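Dear colleague,

Thank you for sharing your sequence with our group. We've completed the structure prediction you requested, and as agreed, I am returning the results in plain text so they can be pasted directly into your records. Please verify that the sequence below matches your submission; if there's any discrepancy, let me know and we will rerun it promptly.
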Amino acid sequence: MIRDIVNEQRKFYQTGKTLDYKFRMKALSRLKKAILRNEEALYEALASDLNKSKTEAYLCEIGIVLDEIRHHQKHLHRWMKKQVILPSLGQLPGICYRVPEPYGVTLIMAPWNYPVNLCFTPLIGAISAGNTAVLKPSAYAPETSKVIEKIISEAFPPRYIAVITGGRKENALLLEEKFDYIFFTGSPNVGK
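Please find the predicted structure tokens below.
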């Protein structure tokens, strides 16, 4: 199942659809709407898993994510542009520029302590950059993981963004796959 998801994401990425500005903006909007539709469920899940109050859940998790989406929507067009850079002496009289390009298929492994923030914030960056993503929320925040899975399944097809729940077995299976970029938040020992 995991291998199939990664393969489907690679095929989808290779279509080039994620490179389009309008596609990325629409994806960010869909994520924001799905989060807002499930905001109360997130509060309940964070209270159940981590005993976070509604205020703490908003200030440290949901509000940060919504702000990040707004920030990316505001700046994405500029970030996607070709950037002219100064040539080195040996490249004169040439013109040099940097072209931002996505990595491809990404994996986001989030910890238990800030499961919404540290799952969705890297996802926003992955979407803005034009990548596909597999999210692996922590097994130590099971109720929050269920809501994250619901949000993602409402907003995106698994060939673009998917969620894999579970524990160490699923982590090991994910790490057997080839990802173009892995975003991991956790201890250095576990990361190694």
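Summary note from our side: Residues 54-80 form the longest helix (27 residues).

Kind regards,
the structure core
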